[in-house]
Amino acid sequence: xxxxxxxxxxxxxxxxxxxxxxxxxxxxxxxxxxxxxxxxxxxxxxxxxxxxxxxxxxxxxxxxxxxxxxxxxxxxxxxxxxxxxxxxxxxxxxxxxxxxxxxxxxxxxxxxxxxxxxxxxxxxxxxxxxxxxxxxxxxxxxxxxxxxxxxxxxxxxxxxxxxxxxxxxxxxxxxxxxxxxxxxxxxxxxxxxxxxxxxxxxxxxxxxxxxxxxxxxxxxxxxxxxxxxxxxxxxxxxxxxxxxxxxxxxxxxxxxxxxxxxxxxxxxxxxxxxxxxxxxxxxxxxxxxxxxxxxxxxxxxxxxxxxxxxxxxxxxxxxxxxxxxxxxxxxxxxxxxxxxxxxxxxxxxxxxxxxxxxxxxxxxxxxxxxxxxxxxxxxxxxxxx
Length: 385
Description:
Blueprint: H1 18-28, E1 31-36, E2 39-44, H2 47-55, H3 62-69, H4 71-74, H5 83-93, H6 99-119, E3 126-128, H7 129-134, H8 136-145, H9 153-163, H10 170-193, H11 199-205, H12 215-245, H13 248-251, H14 257-270, E4 276-280, E5 285-287, E6 290-292, E7 297-301, H15 302-306, H16 339-356, E8 361-362, E9 370-371, E10 377-378, E11 382-384
Parallel strand pairs: 2-7
Antiparallel strand pairs: 1-2, 3-11, 4-7, 5-6, 8-11, 9-10
Helix pairs in contact: 6-8, 6-16, 8-12, 9-10, 9-12, 10-11, 10-12, 12-14, 12-16, 14-16
């Protein structure tokens, strides 16, 4: 079948009008053919259909796609696993992301990093927040959670951006993966012998049912953690800040922790950082009335489902009073392991930013572009305060 909007490639086009395009596609079909990397790919636009696909590991096995576009550069991560292997690896890495442990991170590590970055531009009167705040913030959080040297930030930033770029630049991604692994190997060996209270030590020493993570399993998890937990987080943080700055009615809510949670949650629904998730049909099935053969490339339309009017009335309106769940962290057995950390990290960042800079405003609100069809966030956020 010919793709809808054949002039658009959802892999490479920036698509600032993505939501408008998806709404038109949804009006035609809730599972529809589009072009992705030049190939006809089926985009899921409906919330009900996406929940069904996320929940179906028989017909939409996570490993079917991640083995192709992730495993060559990141290794066999938990996204590439199923059954008992997935269960065991998830059990071994999950203690670091339990709510009780995340709460301990906030005051001791996460909030100080936010304030440290704000200190760097707070006296200037103007700043470009993507480069000065939203991009470096999650990288520093992850680097320090792992207990890595503070001077490694820029190298990790470069490696993380390259790792997630594998479908577009495979050679650069593979080179970054090798450099990343060479850097990590002696650190993992050191933490096995002399563990500290950092995440890398926990990964090196955690034991469940008599099993521990191998070195390669640790490397793979950290290769996944850096781009997944930092690239997506900085895009999400930029979109949250933009949402608040363009919706004055939400601004006062930021100063109350209980309400700030819902501002962040609504922003994740309104502008999901992983807008379209590349996946694959692993076994012949029917979804949304469409017959899909095994091997059919898919796009799980997270941002499409989050703005499906059948699930979210008036979906294009940013409204923190909704108190509605969204699919920005996925659904089912591969629901994002770091979702609790990511949410608290985002809440801490916006709380610190608006506390420190109460008069924060966009210099040219109409000039802000939120771009990307796979990973999505504002290109720049030029502000005055």
